[in-house]
Design a protein that fits this description.
Jelly Rolls, Glycosyltransferase, homodimer, 26 strands, seven-stranded antiparallel β-sheet, 637 residues, alpha+beta
């Protein structure tokens, strides 16, 4: 048999699995599906291919679970699952499939006639397009209705008797199905309380998840956990194993320098990030388990330097953007729509993949058209009644248009101009130009040397956010960027950023302005702070002033904080990009630059993905060695 | 407990079940899902309602099978299936639900807090709208993922030993699950061959369906059948019962006159029609089991006089029209899109239901916009590359725009003008006027006294279809209508209509022109012809010149013809409308007219739905008695 792949209509696999992901959150017995419009997938598709056969050959077609359909060879119909023989000559094969409950997918098994490149998909609407597939679904017995996870078993590193029960501790947080053996004569099935922290698992009232193992298999549902508490159970009575279930995405980066703390920060960041990276980039593994556009933008930047796996980026971009016509914003958030546009650019810079950008282009245009449709009389974008204008958890002056949103719109116009086909470039260039003028006229405050949040309220309130964007997106020129550093970034009168999400943008702005020493100190202080409190994965938020006991609360919930959160992995990007000094000079990394900050390192030995390849740099007492190797070679994650 | 209903977002129930219906066709072991774009349903919805409670009360929320969600009472979350107590005072209840595999629906059970009118549905896109529900789904244990069929058991009327097997004959065709008992020691499970005709069941190679009963339950899948053949089985060895499964829609019509043949035609038409009427109007019960727009238009006209059940009409209209943006035609057929517009008018005339027309109005406008977008330089609508320009199975001169399509577009403009809100009326009136001028200028052939199919080919070919439409839609004035009767309808040089589908339009045109004697003769000849061949349901097509044995073939398939086909029930409409002379004078039948054709009947005793009521007319030797009764009273189907 030749290698075959499950086929589907491009984009539908992602929309289906995005729903599964966004509907999978469960908290304290309540399922909590994401609160935004969810785009469905096509339910009726045909796949077609013509063959010119030299010899008789046979093939069998399988449909995804629950599908209806048939195989047509020239004029004859055959059911799924039946071996079909075809004589030599020219033949047209079409596979018709319909499925309500999951993405209609087919698998064609055969020596010559098999599914993969070359098949066209037809949705009975537009012209046929090449069918899509991926490397994870190559087994006829494992169809795309469910991801098949790779598994790794973890035994507890500690078992203790506490509060009349048994507490099992694992070396790290996992997304695992617990497998429990217990005395079935004694209890029907033990109740299990899970925790990211020891405190959470022991708090049977407030912990997020509790479950009972299936009596036959002993398995609990797949959930995030590091601790498992079984009340009323003596440690010797039960055996608890965690079967970590993950999607295998090889890490292609390693970071080693003379500062062990930095090495540890990089390693724990990588571990945190990989736990949050599965079918899609997730925010966190305990909470929300949703695909958020703002988080994903930062994940794309991190992933560029960690796995270089473009497939998870493509899946995430498709999932976030949803369907057309687009009537709501990404996750309902106006700025996340604009960050999605920036994410496409981040993807393009990483892989130089024009084909995928072309695939997305109509969706980029329609999303920008939605944003443009929401402009007020000065040309500034504003939220509609049901839109969420977020930017960050911060006290903005939200009267009238918000400056940070205009900065994002301006950058989105730059990306659109850059990625547009020739005939659309001038349009976006012109939009950007006039927006720049208007921002300068209405939001720039010469007296304060800063952009203000709002020009309509008269309060002239300054926050860091718009000013950080002005630096990152080059909206302020170099002189003004230096001014902004003084008047905003190093001005303690301007309220500090409180979220690691936006702190990333601030740190990158500081890197751009050359404040590397300050950034390095901050990375060490903030992330080592977590490590010193025993973190094995990095947290959604960390307040150095609070004791460990007070760290778990967030959003008014005693265990509301996610202790394994993707946006906390941003040191990977900052260390790789600004300290190891590695970056592509052309999209996809055909040409690149490696300029480590020799001032900070005696020794440096790092590997990072560079497009499809891997770049290995070694710095020893000022001497730099570089080596570019093919993908897969010499990986030491 | 108060009576509760399952709730869903308006329209989604219909789109979900339309897919189930259109994907349910199976022929000779091959599933054959309908070959057009299928509109999906929303997967993430919230339902909300505020309550002002005098006393403490409890309620429980259930979600449809496979759904994820939670109940929020003020700020507290609760899982589905848990009894929730609420104290007196003001409360806001919201139910969040997500479901990939079927339409997200909820059921709220409680004395005071229960699901039905008053709940709003939110799809996280547009403004909330009143939630939808129907009378069939009121049981918490029976959710809307599956229709719960009413059942009636039929025992065979004949069992015979033939060709080494046993043949079971039922009194009529059914959509039934066979229940079989057999000697399980002898065979694992017998193979069963089904037929609409005896010949089909006995032809184990060419019959459409064969199946095996489930070994435990003895049940076969629900299928159309009148005959069941079990090869290798002696009649005394097996017991076969047919469990007819149907959706209970009460018939509210009866027809009795002094002509027993007409009474029989009406009764068999009614029986045929009801078999084809379930969740939706289907074309036939063996084949295609699909929802076709042209067939449905005629079914709406028949149903007006048979059940007066507006719900099946609403379901069918929603199912046919699908989603927005509309990019493909109803069933891919240009004329079926236009007939859908006419169907909305037929619905409005029957029930005067402005609210439902308002619900559909945006979909009417967008569908007309699609049709208008396909006009060539003269303003005539033409098919696009992937459109099907059907009209009828006939030899049209298909060069350039087809006249019959323009007639339909013209009538669609009239309907749009009539049903439009005030500010849109002029638009459609003007479109219709200019189209009328262009039809006259390009398609009218003065020499032939007929409209020609094509003005571009130069062939000046005349078929009946456009000319019939010109009469039905009043495009030809009265004088010209009389001319068309001579030059086309009674002109044997113009090829005869071959399908009962279009024959219906022709017979109605003849009725309009007063040729009732001719129509009555035709009804008797054609439909009695089938009865004389032993038909117990009316057929998709009937050629009086062929012997019984040759009647089953169609589309090149020996048993391709459907022997229970909705469009063959059109005598109901013709007899009621033109012979019993019953029609509404205002939409919904507030005022009506009953003018039986006394020339044809000595005695007539008929009941027909009239809006929500029922009209009973009795004609005895020229004396007419009319009685209008409330729905449900005095029904004698």
């Amino acid at each position: 048999m030749s290698e075959s792949y499950w086929l589907w209509y491009p984009g539908d696999f992602e929309l289906y699995h995005a729903m599964k992901q966004n509907f999978s959150r469960v908290e304290r017995g309540c399922a909590w599906p994401a609160f935004w419009k969810s785009a469905g997938f096509r339910n009726r598709v045909a796949f077609r291919r013509a063959y010119e056969l030299d010899a008789e050959t046979g093939f069998t077609v399988y449909g995804v679970t629950g599908a209806q359909g048939y195989v047509q060879v020239d004029d004859a119909k055959h059911p799924f699952g039946e071996k079909i023989s075809v004589c030599p000559g020219s033949h047209t094969i079409s596979v018709h499939i319909a499925c309500i409950g999951c993405v209609p997918s087919i698998y064609v098994e055969g020596d010559v006639i098999c599914s993969g490149a070359g098949w066209m998909a037809d949705d009975f609407d537009g012209d046929p397009v090449p069918a899509a597939y991926n490397r994870y679904f190559t087994d006829p017995k494992w169809d795309p209705s469910e991801w098949k996870y790779a598994e790794k078993e973890y035994r507890p590193i500690a078992v203790e008797s506490v509060r009349g029960g048994a507490l099992y501790t694992f070396e790290t947080e996992l997304t695992a199905a617990l497998k429990i053996t217990w005395d079935k004569a004694k209890v029907e099935a033990p109740r299990v309380y899970l925790g990211e922290s020891r405190a959470e698992a022991l708090d049977t009232k407030n912990c997020y998840y509790h479950c009972q193992p299936d009596r036959n298999t002993g398995l609990c549902p797949r959930q995030a956990l590091r601790y498992a508490f079984l009340p009323g159970c003596a440690p010797e009575e039960c055996e608890v194993t965690a079967i970590h279930q993950y999607i295998d995405i090889p890490v292609k980066a390693a970071f080693s320098c003379d500062d062990e703390e930095l090495n540890r920060i990089f390693a724990v960041s990588a571990h945190t990030f990989m736990l949050c990276s599965g079918a899609f980039f997730l925010d966190g593994i305990k909470r929300d388990k949703w695909i958020w556009g703002g988080d994903a933008y930062q994940s794309l930047l991190v992933n560029r330097y960690l796995t270089g796996d473009r497939e998870i980026e493509k899946r995430t971009l498709i999932a976030l953007r949803g369907g057309d016509p687009v009537t709501t914003h990404v996750n309902t958030i106006l700025d996340y729509s604009l960050l999605w546009i920036l994410s496409v650019d981040a993807y393009f810079e990483s892989y130089g993949d024009r084909e995928f950008v072309d695939f997305l282009w109509p969706k980029m245009e329609s999303l920008m058209a939605l944003c443009f449709s929401q402009r007020e009389e000065h040309g500034f974008v504003v939220g509609r009644k049901r839109d969420w204008v977020f930017v960050d958890w911060a006290d903005f002056d939200r009267d009238g248009p918000l400056c940070a949103e205009q900065m994002l719109l301006c950058e989105a116009c730059r990306v659109m101009e850059k990625l547009a086909p020739r005939e659309r470039k001038a349009f976006y260039a012109k939009e950007r130009e006039s927006l720049l003028c208007q921002i300068e006229r209405f939001f720039w405050d010469e007296a304060q040397g800063a952009y203000v949040d709002s020009f309509t309220s008269g309060k002239r309130h300054v926050t860091r956010h718009a000013n950080i964007f002005a630096i990152l997106f080059g909206i302020a020129d170099e002189a003004r960027q230096r001014l902004l550093a003084r008047s905003v970034l190093f001005n303690s009168a301007v309220p500090a950023i409180t979220t690691p999400y936006f702190r990333f943008f601030e740190l990158e702005a500081l890197c751009r302005l050359g404040y590397l020493k300050e950034v390095l100190a901050e990375i060490k202080a903030y992330w080592c702070g977590m490590l010193k409190l025993g973190a094995v994965t990095f947290w959604e938020e960390y307040d150095p002033k609070k004791p460990l006991k007070a760290q778990y609360e967030m959003y008014g919930d005693p265990f509301g904080k996610s202790l394994c959160h993707a946006w906390a992995a941003s040191p990977i990007y900052l260390l790789a990009r600004y300290f190891a000094g590695v970056r592509a000079l052309t999209p996809g990394g055909e040409t690149y630059e490696a300029k480590p900050q020799t001032a900070f390192f005696e020794h440096l030995d790092c590997r990072f993905p560079m497009g499809e390849k891997q770049l290995h740099i070694q710095l020893n007492q000022g001497m730099l060695r570089e080596e570019l190797t093919e993908q897969g070679k010499g990986l030491t994650p």
